[in-house]
Amino acid sequence: MLLILTGKKNISPKTKRFIGLLKKNLSSSRVRSSSSSFEEMEVLINKADVKILVGGKSLDNWTTIFPRKVGRHSGLAFILASYARRKNILFLDKFRESTNDITKLVQMFLFSVNKIPIPKTYYSPVYLPKHIRRAIEFLHFPIIIKQCNTSKGAGVSLVQNKKMLTGQLVKTMKADPKKEIILQEFIPNDFEYRIFVTGHKVAVAEKKIRASKDEFRNNVHLGAREEFLDIKKVKKNILRTALRAAKVTNVQIAGVDITEDAQGNPVVFEVNSCPSFTLDSRISNEVEKLAEYLIECEGK
Questions:
Q1: Are strands 143-147 and 181-185 parallel, antiparallel or unpaired?
Q2: Reading across the β-sheet that carries 64-67, which strands appear in turn?
Q3: Which pTM does this prediction carry?
């Protein structure tokens, strides 16, 4: 069956007429089709599995996908095209299988399909009550609300119940209806690593340790303490996972935020393509290591 996707659920009369005529032509050739929108999609990302729903139904129900208009959903279109390719579903057009918009959502998808451990992640372009219910069933409380395309811990909150979750989502979407928001399971931790990767090697490793018990974020901008480490003393599975995460996202100068779960397994939070640096050379050699890599690049 063929799926026709529009950018928005509420379409113009002209677009509605176009889809009606298209379906009529398809039906005359006995081709079954249905229509939906990017706003009716949901993405459920597990540590090594991705599930995409359209109108509550698995994307696997369709054999061909024709997106009439992507609009602001370029990241979602990339995920859809990549997923379709893996499932042998024809996605039109092929140019949408690549994107320069590596948002937090796209990163989580890339990590999952490449078996890089992450927090469970849920996304919908619009958070209606039915989406919130499914997100709660998938993630369980507490839940992290994370606005995409933010930095330094901004736009990230922790909620403990449905009322808090709904209220925060409504507030954020009201302020900016086009804001991309992902929901994630909370991974309890006392600190997180920032692994600075240059090219294909780990250049610097540090711990970011939050100072306040009332804070769940480990951002230096929010008062977390930095503890720079001897790379040789950092667990090898942490370093290997950080290198893989940087490679998968194709970021050559990367700050990989990574922690450990209760079983001691690595969990990647994010790859920062524009990491902040500690400029005091008595504490950190980040700038020195960056310069070494740039010199190496210039010499090629």
A1: antiparallel
A2: 33-37, 2-6, 64-67, 90-91
A3: 0.91
